[in-house]
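Recall the central idea of this unit: under ordinary conditions, the amino acid sequence of a chain determines the structure it adopts. In this exercise we apply that idea directly, starting from the sequence alone.
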Amino acid sequence: AVVSTQSGYYGREPPAYYPPSQQPPSYPGYPGGYAPSPAGPAPPQGLAHGMKVRFRCTKTNKNMRLTNANMVDGHGGNGKFATFVVHVIGPGQYCFQNAVGGWLALKGSRATGTTVYRDPDTIFLLHLNPGDGSVSLECQSCPGWFLAVKRDGSTKVIWAERKPSTKFFPQVVQ
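Accordingly, the structure predicted from this sequence is:
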């Protein structure tokens, strides 16, 4: 089930690192104040600590998953490999752990997983894309580099925030 609130925001103010041009607009007339997306309702305007979320890939229309072999791809379903618990580390800093204990990470030029809690490569900055309600994940330890999923479902790390391959539609689950 996707969670929605009237404000579209889970009781937190937007992180201070967003420039005014990236502040998400409100979408009057839509439930929760946000626009719909092709993958279902758009995410709230932020993610709270402890929330469970799935990231629907724009290129494959499937969820991003982190497997037992620490491989990240865009072929996930709705199970434990594709459902991530949100950990808020600091203002605008997020880590994502799936149900089998793996942490989403960007190491060098590849997306992978790790079992190390608070590894610097597991901390992401969340960028809201107000035009379609999607989010992009920037690696904090590699500023300017974003997690992307290609059309074939494989992952890559690219230098471009607004490219379609870097956009994900988070779905909050209960």
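Confidence is low (pLDDT under 50) at residues 1-44.
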